[in-house]
Write a structure and sequence with these properties.
Helix content is about 50%, strand content about 10%. The chain has helices at about 1-30, 35-50, 55-60, 85, 95-105, 115-125, 130-150, 155-165, 200-210, 225-240, 250-265, 285-295, 315-330, 345-355, 375-385; strands spanning about 185-190, 215-220, 240-245, 270-275, 305-310, 330-335, 360, 370. Strands 3-2-4-1-5-6-7-8 form an eight-stranded mixed beta sheet, sandwiched between helices. Helix 8 (about 155-165) crosses helix 15 and helix 13 packs parallel to helix 14 (about 345-355). The longest helix has 28 residues, at about 1-30. The protein is elongated, with a radius of gyration of 41 Å. The termini are far apart.
């Protein structure tokens, strides 16, 4: 009996061990429970997409992506041209040192001998007034001071101012011809040498015209430099003027012709055409400028041809003006960079030599630093308000 019991216990032990050998491997091979599907997907999207981005409202409701509208900057309103020269008089400080301090200081001496008058002549010539004009001014000053016995500071300043204004010939017509004929826009052609600031000045002229109530179409006929057309278009866009331009290297005469045609179709008051800068001694380029003039005149006569002169070039500007006048019949001068020179007398020299009035003067880099020229206001600004060394 005991033997049967031992055999039964041994068999039971074998069965228990065999069952455990079958169950344990299965327990070891059981896979870990998967993460919830939503949790895995969320982590993947966050890793790939970064921070959440709000979609436009239209996209959420209709599925159509709506781009935000491009808001154009508001148009600029140019400063009124009336009184600009008075407001900008401080920009002539360098010229004031020659005319105001130097000349008035010399005239206020107790005794005006020959040496004093020679110094006065030298000061005027240094300021680029020109030899002939200087002699005329000095002769008249000598006669008037001798006859009138003028000696007080106030009287001397008034005397010198009168002579300078007279030398500037206030009778010349300095208005811009901005009124067309028979329903056509007025056409203004802007010419000049390289580096005179012509394209910038052209943009400022457009602001002058718009400030005076005119509508303007710009013609970018400087096709040699793409940057010139871009620059002019930027100037025009600020004040609402349309710019007509062509491809780089296109025929300048063709672009100018198209600009006038656009001005006619749009009904604008004035078409302002910027031409490429050119040296006056380059015959081929000057002939090309003549072609621009002839092609534009197929629409009608050019009302105004403005020559932009760099005031810092001094007497060299006279030769430039002479050649340009022969080619395109310059009707007015725009003196740029007048604030950067002590040679404000170039205004007198240009008018005396060429009989061409200075119509606009540039007195700074600001958008509205181009002022209509007025002889009396200009001379008053040149002489400044510095007191003389002595008074009566």
């Amino acid at each position: 009996m005991t033997e049967y019991l031992l055999i039964a216990l041994a068999l039971l032990a074998v069965l228990i061990l065999g069952g455990l050998s079958l169950v344990v491997p299965r327990l070891r091979r059981r896979p870990e429970p998967p993460l919830p599907e939503t949790e895995v997907d969320t982590r993947a999207e966050e890793d790939l997409a970064g921070p959440p981005v709000e979609a436009p409202e239209a996209e959420l409701t209709t599925g159509i992506l709506v781009e935000p509208p491009v808001v154009a900057p508001p148009l600029e309103v140019p400063e009124p041209t009336a009184g600009r020269l008075v407001r900008l008089r401080s920009r002539l400080s360098r010229s004031q040192n020659v005319f105001g301090k130097s000349l008035l200081g010399l005239l206020s001496r107790d005794h005006l001998d020959e040496d004093a008058w020679e110094e006065i002549e030298d000061a005027l010539i240094t300021a680029d007034v020109g030899i002939d004009a200087t002699r005329e001014i000095v002769d008249r000053l000598r006669e008037r001071t001798r006859v009138l016995g003028t000696r007080s500071a106030t009287e001397l300043r008034a005397l010198l101012a009168a002579e300078l204004v007279n030398a500037l010939d206030p009778s010349l017509d300095r208005s811009l011809r901005t009124t067309g004929k028979e329903g056509l826009p007025a056409v203004l052609l802007v010419v000049g040498v390289n580096g005179a600031g012509k394209t910038t000045t052209c943009g400022k002229i457009a602001r002058v015209l718009i400030a005076d109530g005119h509508s303007v179409t710009l013609g970018a006929a400087d096709t040699f430099r793409a940057a010139a057309a871009d620059q002019l278009e930027t100037w025009g866009g600020r004040v609402g003027a349309v710019t007509v331009r062509g491809a780089e290297g296109a025929d300048p005469a063709s672009v100018a012709f198209d600009a006038v045609r656009e001005g006619i179709e749009a009904g604008t008051d004035t078409v302002l055409i910027d031409t490429a800068g050119r040296l006056q001694n380059k015959i081929g380029l000057m002939d090309e400028l003549g072609k621009v003039k002839r092609v534009v005149e197929k629409h009608g006569p050019i009302d105004e041809t403005l020559l932009v002169l760099d005031a810092t070039t001094g007497q060299n500007g006279l030769e430039q003006a002479r050649v340009f006048t022969e080619v395109v019949n310059v009707t007015g001068v725009v003196l740029s960079k007048l604030d950067g020179t002590a040679k404000g007398g170039i205004v007198i020299a240009v008018q005396r030599k060429l009989g061409i009035p200075v119509k606009l003067v540039g007195l700074g880099e600001g958008a509205d630093d181009l002022a209509p020229f007025d002889p009396a206001q200009f001379v008053d600004a040149l002489l400044g308000t510095e007191p003389l060394a002595r008074d009566a």
